Structure formats: C-alpha cells, structure tokens
C-alpha cells in the first residue's frame, strides 16, 4: 500500500512532536480493526484511546497520535505527541483535504445520507477513483478521519455529514470544503435538540457554508421547509439544483414503481424524460437516486450514464438490504424474505420502510400458515423529543399498515404503537429488543416477508441476527441465483 502520511507531514499538519519516524498507510481509532501500517489515533470516548496504544503498536500500527506517552510506551516508540488528539485529527483532516485534487461531494439529510453516499460511491467509480466514508463516519471524529484517509490519488471524495445538535454541521462542512453538496430531505428527527422542523432545516442548510467558490447546492422540493433550504443555498452556492415530485424541479420524480426487488423510476430532467432502475425496492430510494444524479452531474458526470450505473448499487446491511433466508438446503420454498433496516429510524424512514413492506409479495402455501404474511419487527425511534409518544402511535394510521399482517414490537416507546394498532395486527410486545430477538425464530414462517426496523440504540438489530441464524449452513450457496 502507498504511504498516506509520513511522520514529517503529519507533524507539520498537527504541529506535533515525533518521537520516532514512521510511515503510515492508513488511519485507525479501533485496535479491533487495526491493520499493519495504520496510524492509531488515541481518541477519548467511552474509553481513553491511550489505554490501547501499546496494543495497537504491538498489532503492527506504524505509529500513534497521542497527547502523552502512554503506559507501556516510551520515546523509542513511534509517537506523534500533540496537546489535543481530536484537534490534531481535525488538523490532519484539513491537511488531507488541502492536498487533494479530488472533486469533493458532501451529503446530509434526515433520511438517506448513507444510502446516497453509497449510491455515489457506486456511480462515481465508473468515472475515476472514489474515496468515501466508511459506514456512518459522519460526526465530529468521523468526518476528519475520512478526510485524513483521503488518498492524494483520489478523483472523487464523498463525505457524509450528520448532526444530533445545533451547530454541528457548519464546522464539518467547512472542513470538507465540498464542490457540491446534497440535502436528501428534512424530516422529524433529533427533535430532542430542535424546537421544530424549521430548526432542523436551518441546521441542514448549514452544509452549504462549506461550499467551495462556484459550488453547487442540491436541495429537495415539495417540503414545507424547502424555502429555508433554498435561502441557505442562495447565500453560498453559485448554482442551485432541485429534485423531487414538485412540478418545475430540475430533476422531477414522476413515478416510482416497485417491481419485485427493484424500483422503476420515471423522471424528467431539464424537460427530457428519464427511465431507469434502482436495484432495490422503495420509493424513497428513487428520490435519493435523483439527488445523487443531480450531485454527480454537478461534478461533471453524464446523468444518463450515472442513471444506468445505479443498477450496480445495493443498500448496505441495516439500510434496507433485502435477502432471502433459506431454512432448508434442499427445498428452496422453505425460505422467507428479510428486509434489514435496523440501523436507524425516524417517522419518515419508518413510513418509507412500511411502504416497501406493504408493496412486497409474500408466497402462499409454503409454510405452517397457508397464507404468506407481511410481518414487521419494530424497535423504538429515538431522539424525537416531547412528541415521541404521539409519533410512535401515529404509525398505526399510516396507509401501509392496512396491508401488514402482524407487527411485533420492542421498547417502551413502541408500547404506544401497540395500543394504537387494531388487535388483529398486534403481534408480541417486549420491553427490550433482546427479549423480542429470543422469540423471533418462532414468529416467522416460510413465505413471509419480514421487515426489521428501529433506531440503532433500540438494539433491534439483534432481531436481524436471530432471524439470520435460521439460515441452514450451505443453503445460500445451494440456492444461489434463485434469490
């Protein structure tokens, strides 16, 4: 692997002191995933990263970014000593961005940040070398790590930027300095920290404060806060591109039709019709795709080619990924479909997931129940503030619920949805996700289509793990090509 940071360059960027020269090929903050040649960054979080420096060096780390010489280490070890590790990491991120010739794209939004980032990774790869954030590296340490990892050879960089509180997006956007920035949507999320949707919109629009001169802002239409987003964009962007269902949108969504495991998208771009396929079901993925097309075009990509390349993308685990769980190595009918959407949840993303489930087709006559079912396993939506009880209960009134057979629930907030659901749809309810996970294997049947959805903190991903354990060893290979 090529050298990412020499100790000399890193010391210049951070104004730190080097105890022993090193050459790092990567950046790591976790000894569990560290690779030989990484620079280990000793951040303080739940644990103090200094406690793991010795282990990192013994595992092959090229050096460590520290604020003191840790226990078990000495000046003979390759250490870069700085007054504050997080501040130094931010300096390293700024230096990584400053030396890069890549076209930088930034993405934020209440829903769809990570999916849009991964779409961009897929479509931009046809046009050059792409560097994108891992997982959801979108916070005060994730963004500088992503920038610090940016190879000088990259043609494109995709930076995901998130927030939980006011004032978090602008500093990260100014660090990333994107040439183009996308807001996927604005929805009720993090209402514990914001008074209303307008406050969330103003915070999201702060991403445009980091735009490079001549930059492009991509914003959704048809929202009650679209004018707030537009106002924020007008202050900092040379070009504003819109997408959504509203007439007059630069990228106007005409229809999104779910067809099996795909979504057929009809749209208009600059008055010309577009027809393309996203290889996963969900109208929300169609909307995200239009934002991605607009953002990619802003950095020079052909929108027709980009639309075709969207067929190479599939959602990552926990983000709406669909898979068939084969419970028998011989009989492929002994299987059910699982939507793993267990990484995050708010009312907007929950509604989108329920719509996908409602549009899915179970298979009859293959399980203990003669009729295949649509089943939802739902965990709490977190950080919704004073309205959280009502927002959970309101899911019972969503039109998609009419096509869902059973809803199993976990978490104290989901008790309000349980009480609001018709008795015929009420599945099992538990205070915690581990309790529901322990019962999950008894609650599904061949032919079912199953959704698992909830905020990460609800731990509803444990239900996904429990359901995946129903797959018979070797069954996936035996039935490969039939999914």
Describe the model.
- This protein has 483 residues and is α/β, with parallel strands linked by helices.
- It folds into three domains: 5-85, Udp-n-acetylmuramoylalanyl-d-glutamate--2,6- Diaminopimelate Ligase, Chain: A, domain 1, CATH 3.40.1390.10; 100-312, Mur-like, catalytic domain (UDP-N-acetylmuramoyl-L-alanine:D-glutamate ligase, 3-Layer(aba) Sandwich), CATH 3.40.1190.10; 321-478, Mur ligase, C-terminal domain (Protein-Tyrosine Phosphatase, Chain A).
- It is 30% helix and 22% strand.
- It is built from 16 helices and 22 strands.
- It has helices at 7-14, 53-58, 85-99, 113-124, 142-148, 169-176, 197-205, 226-236, 283-298, 303-309, 347-359, 388-393, 415-420, 433-440, 461-468, 475-478, and strands at 5-6, 17-18, 23-24, 26-28, 38-41, 63-66, 79-81, 103-108, 130-132, 156-160, 180-183, 216-220, 239-244, 251-259, 262-269, 272-278, 321-326, 335-341, 374-379, 406-410, 426-430, 449-453.
- Strands 9-10-8-11-12-13-14-15-16 form a nine-stranded mixed beta sheet, sandwiched between helices. A six-stranded mixed beta sheet has the order 17-18-22-19-20-21, with helices on both faces. A five-stranded mixed beta sheet has the order 2-7-6-5-4.
- A hairpin with an 8-residue loop joins strand 17 and strand 18 (335-341).
- Helix 3 crosses helix 5 and helix 14 (433-440) runs parallel beside helix 15 (461-468).
- The longest helix has 16 residues, at 283-298.
- The radius of gyration is 24 Å and the shape is globular.
- The model has no long low-confidence stretch (mean pLDDT 91).
- ATP binds at residues 109-115.
- Its EC number is 6.3.2.10.
């Amino acid at each position: 692997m090529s050298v990412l940071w020499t100790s000399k360059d890193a010391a210049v960027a951070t104004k730190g002191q080097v105890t022993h020269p090193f050459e790092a090929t990567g950046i790591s903050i976790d000894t569990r995933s560290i690779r030989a040649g990484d620079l280990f960054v000793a951040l303080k979080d739940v644990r103090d990263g200094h406690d793991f420096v010795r282990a990192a060096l013994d595992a092959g780390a090229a050096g460590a970014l520290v604020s003191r010489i840790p226990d078990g280490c000495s000046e003979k070890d390759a250490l870069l000593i700085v007054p504050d590790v997080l501040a130094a990491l931010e300096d390293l991120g700024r230096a990584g961005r400053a030396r890069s010739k890549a076209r930088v794209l930034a993405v934020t939004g209440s829903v769809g940040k990570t999916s849009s980032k991964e779409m961009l990774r897929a479509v931009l790869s046809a046009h050059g070398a792409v560097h994108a954030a891992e997982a959801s590296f979108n916070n005060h340490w994730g963004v500088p790590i992503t920038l610090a990892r940016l190879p000088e050879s990259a043609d494109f960089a995709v930076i995901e930027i998130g927030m939980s509180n006011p004032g978090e997006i602008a500093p990260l956007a100014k660090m990333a300095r994107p040439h183009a920035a996308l807001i996927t949507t604005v929805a009720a999320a993090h209402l514990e920290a914001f008074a209303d949707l307008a406050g969330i919109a103003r915070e999201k629009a702060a991403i445009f404060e980091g735009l490079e001169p001549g930059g492009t802002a991509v914003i959704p239409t048809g929202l009650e806060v679209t004018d707030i987003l537009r106002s924020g964009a007008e202050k900092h962007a040379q070009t504003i591109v819109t997408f959504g269902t509203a007439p007059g949108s630069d990228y106007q969504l005409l229809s999104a039709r779910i067809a099996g495991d795909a979504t057929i998208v009809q749209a208009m771009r600059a008055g010309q019709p577009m027809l393309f396929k996203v290889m996963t079901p969900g109208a929300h993925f169609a909307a995200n795709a239009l934002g991605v097309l607009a953002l990619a075009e802003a950095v020079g990509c052909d929108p027709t080619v980009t639309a075709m390349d969207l067929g190479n993308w599939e959602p990552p685990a926990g983000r709406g990924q669909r898979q068939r769980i084969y419970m028998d190595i011989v009989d492929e009918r002994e299987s059910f479909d699982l939507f793993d959407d267990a990484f995050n949840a708010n009312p907007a993303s929950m509604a989108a997931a329920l719509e996908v489930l409602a549009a899915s087709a179970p298979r009859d006559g293959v399980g203990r129940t003669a009729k295949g079912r649509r089943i939802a396993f739902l965990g709490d939506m977190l950080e919704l503030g004073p309205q959280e009880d009502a927002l959970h209960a309101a899911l019972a009134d969503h039109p998609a619920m009419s096509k869902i057979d059973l809803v199993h629930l976990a978490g104290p907030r989901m008790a309000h949805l349980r009480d609001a659901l018709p008795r015929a749809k009420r599945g099992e309810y538990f205070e915690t996700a581990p309790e529901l996970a322990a019962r999950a294997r008894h609650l599904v049947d061949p032919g079912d289509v199953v959704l698992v959805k909830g905020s990460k903190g609800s731990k509803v991903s444990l239900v996904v793990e429990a359901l995946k354990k129903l797959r018979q060893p070797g069954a996936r290979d035996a039935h490969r090509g039939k999914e």
